[in-house]
Structure formats: C-alpha cells, structure tokens
Amino acid sequence: MRKTVNIILTAALCLGLLAGCANSSAGGESGAPTFTPQPTATPEPPSTVPDPTAVPEKNGMYDLLSDVFDRYHFGTAGSSLTGAFYAASLVDWGMKNGTGATVNGARAWDRGTENEYGESLEEKLSSLYVTAMSFYGPGLAILGDCGWQGEWEYSSADIRSVFQPLFPALGMEAPFVARVYYPDDGVTALRAEGRVIDPAPGADIARELSAALDGRVLTDGAAILSASLEGTELTIDINTAFADRIRSFGTSGELLTVAAVVNTALDAVGEAQSVRITESGAPLETGHNIYSEPMTYYEP
After folding, report:
1. Fold of 198-300
2. 0.85 cut: is pTM over it?
3. Per-residue tens of pLDDT for the chain, all 300 residues
4. Which of 249, 158, 268 is nearest to 209 (CA)?
5. Are 300 and 189 in contact (CB under 8 A)?
6. What Å distances lie between residue 135 and 24, 99, 154, 194, 201, CA to CA?
7. Measured distance between the N- and C-terminal CA atoms of the chain, rounded to whole angstroms
8. Which of 260, 263, 282 minimizes the C-alpha distance to 216?
9. DSSP 8-state class, residue 273
10. H or E stretch covering 161
C-alpha cells in the first residue's frame, strides 16, 4: 500500500513538472513580458548664448582688437579713415562669425587696457562704435575712401549686436550708442551719426532725445517739451519754435526733418515701434500735412 502511494505521488510530481515546462514554453511564444519604450526627450535647440566656461580663442576678433590697439589713434591726422576701416571690419567680422566667436575672441584679450601711448582700448572701441553708426546714406562714402572692401548691408541693430557684447567680454561697461538722423545742409537727404545716450530704465526720454538731436535738428530755439511712451507708441511734444521751423521748409525739407525725429526716436527708444508728434499737445499741422497718426521708420 505504501509503495502504491509513493508511486502515485511520484507520478503526480512528474506530471506537475511537465506542465510547468509546457507553460514556460508557451510563455516564450505568447506570454513573454513586453517593454514600453521610454519617451524620447525633444532635444533643446542650440543656445546662441556664448558658453562662459569655453576656453577663449585668439581668433580673428582678437587680431582685429590687436590692430585697433596698436594702429588706431583717434584724434590724429587720418584717424577718421583708419577708424572707419576698423569700425567696418569689426562689425563685418562679428556679423559673419556670430556673437559666440566675437565674445570668445574678446575674452582671449591679454594685452592690458592701455597701450604704450596711454591710449585706452575702451575709448578706442567707443569711438569706433560711434563711427560705425554713421555708416548710413551719404555717410557710406567713407567706406570707399578708407579702403574697406565689401558690401555694407548692416543696420544700426546689427552694429549694436556686435559692439554691445564686445565691451563686457573685455571687462568694460558698454555704452549705448544711438543713430541720430538729420537732414544734410541742403535739406535734400538724410544723414546719420552715432551719439552716446543714456538708455537706463526710467531715464528722461525727452532729455535724452533733446541731447541727441541738439545742434542737428534742434536749433534756433526748437525744443522737445516732453516725451511719453504708452505701450509701443512714443508721443513727442514739440514747442512752437520747432513746429515753425518744420513749417518753414518745402515738402521735401519738412518730410526729412520729421523723419529725422521719428527715426532717431525709434533707434534710441528700443520699446518704441511708432512715433506721434504733437505741438503743445495738439497734432502737428503744417501747410502740407496734418500729423495726426503715429509714424514708423522712414526709408528714403
């Protein structure tokens, strides 16, 4: 009897093992575990901000800065042509090679801040910044005179995008240079020049615009009474002397004078996208036009 029971138990154990093997085999075909692929993270776009930990490279910008340091002596005979050449070269190289390369070349600077003549690199670059802003309209002629070769299609925003990061990369505070527009002597075309202004938040816009336009558009008692920015619209209120001066021109002269104010304001006040001109609070009226609508950048 005991022997029979053992045989039965042994047989049952063998059948259990065989069933387990069968289930294992079947699982390999239809019961295998499945794996859900993990979602792939969307790659971040490449950053345009220079890596502050990158090793500075003595590239073409470094070479240009060395030439400026050694060869540009502003305030001396011929310096305007030399300055025009280096101002154009700095902007052109920076635009073609990008902010990262510009900053990297500046960060590699290892030659001090003053040369053997006591000339400051910071003052030289500020002078070139101002010079570059004059490359507009008739002012472009100097590029041919100074020997610089190449097409010039750079705006004031392009010029600013090269110089503004260049200064802090050299451990200097960047000035803010605006392009100031004004009619030429014959009041037949717009010219431009660079002037350093104060762009600090909360600055008196009327005061800064007055300083920028002083001696160019603001002459003979012409003045800006106030300037206020609402959203992206800048309102500039002028006095009667300024309005009378605008009215004294013919159609072309009037247009160029108004355009000089509008273009300068749009370049100097970054948030502004349009400009409205009023005379003592009312829309400016001339014999040719009523300036009741906001104006945008004037392209001659």
Report:
1. GMP Synthetase; Chain A, domain 3 (3.30.300)
2. no
3. 444 444 444 444 444 444 444 444 444 444 444 444 444 445 555 555 555 566 688 999 999 999 999 999 988 988 999 999 999 999 999 999 999 999 999 999 999 999 988 999 999 999 999 999 999 999 999 999 999 999 999 999 999 999 999 999 999 999 999 999 999 988 999 999 999 987 655 568 999 999 999 999 999 999 999 999 999 999 999 999 999 999 999 999 999 999 999 999 999 998 899 999 999 999 999 988 999 999 999 987
4. 268
5. yes
6. 82, 21, 9, 9, 28
7. 118
8. 260
9. S
10. helix 156-169
Element (H, E) at 237: strand 233-238
Domain ranges of the chain: 54-174, 198-300
Residue whose entry in the numeric block shows the structure tokens 């500020």:
126
Would you say 190 and 263 are in contact if contact means Cβ atoms under 8 Å apart?
yes
